Amino acid sequence: MKDLGSIMKQAQAVQQRMAEAQEKIAALEIEGMAGGGAVRLMLRGSGELARLDIDASLMAPGEAEMVADLVIAAHADARRKLDDQQGSLMREAAGPLAGMNLPGMPKF
Fold first, then answer.
1. pLDDT of the chain along its 108 residues, tens only?
2. What are the backbone angles phi and psi of residue 53, rounded to the nearest 5°?
3. How far apart, in whole angstroms, are the C-alpha atoms of residue 100 and residue 72?
4. What crossing angle do the helices spanning 64-94 and 2-27 adopt, rounded to 10°?
C-alpha cells in the first residue's frame, strides 16, 4: 500500500498544479494582429474579446470587407497564440502525466 500512498500524493500534486495552471490561463491576455498591426485585438484566457483597435486609415468607404477580413485574421492569430499558451501551461502542470490520455485528464 505504500505505492498507493505515493501515487495519491503525486495525483494531489498534479491536481494542485492543474488548478494553478487554470488560474494562470484565466489571467492571460494575448494580443493578435493583422495588416501589419493595423488591426489589433486582445483575447482573455477564457477566449473573451477584451479589446479591438482598428487603425483610422482603414475606416474609408468601401473598405468594410477588408477590415472584416483583418479582424478575423487578428482573432485567428490571437486564438492560436492563446491555444499554444494554454497547452504549454497545462502540459507543464501535468508533468510526467502529460500526453498519457488518462481518463479525466484534459487533452493538450
1. 568 788 888 878 888 888 888 899 999 999 999 999 999 999 999 999 999 999 999 999 999 999 999 999 999 999 999 999 998 988 888 876 666 565 555 555
2. -120, 125
3. 34
4. 160
Nearest one of 37, 30, 28 to 81, comparing CA atoms? 30
Domains and CATH numbers, the chain: 2-97 (3.30.1310.10)
- The pTM of this model reads 0.73
Query: 53, 63 in Cβ contact below 8 A?
Result: no
DSSP string, 23-92: HHHHH-EEEEEEGGGTEEEEEETTS-EEEEEE-GGG-STT-HHHHHHHHHHHHHHHHHHHHHHHHHHHHH
**Grid cell digits, residue 103:** 481518463
* Cell numbers placing 67: 477590415
